[in-house]
Description:
Layout: H1 2-13, H2 18-47, H3 54-79, H4 86-102, H5 108-125, H6 131-154
Amino acid sequence: MGLTAFGAAGIAAQQASASTWLGVWLAEAAVAAAIGTWATVRKARAVGLSLLRGAGRKFLFGLGPPILAGGVLTLALFRLGATHALPGMWLLMYGVGTVAAGTFSVRVVPVMGFCFMLLGMATLLLPAAWGNACMAIGFGGLHLVFGWIIARRHGG
Length: 156
């Protein structure tokens, strides 16, 4: 997931219009969701757990509402022409969802969520031109760092 975010940040930075920039990041969100779903299903099968029961279900209900709210806010901010606020809002909402969902996972997951929240808050206060770099740091760097930690300590 982290590597595709670095690629998306590079491609998005070269877009001339807000709509194509948004299209790049929405495509990245779909790719990241597919990779995350695949990895989660693979891990659940390996340990014999159901994703639709117990901790897997709680994780989905913790992550889902902030992601849904982020989708609605994306539409509203885009319609208002406030695309400069999208990177910070996305990082912040993803962080909120990760903290909420992470309460049903290993301890490092909520920590990752707090890091996303801090980066999202900082991104909202930084110049708009830094948005793609902040997205690369968050969705690329934080996922790679915490993914490595989770893989090393918890087997993936």
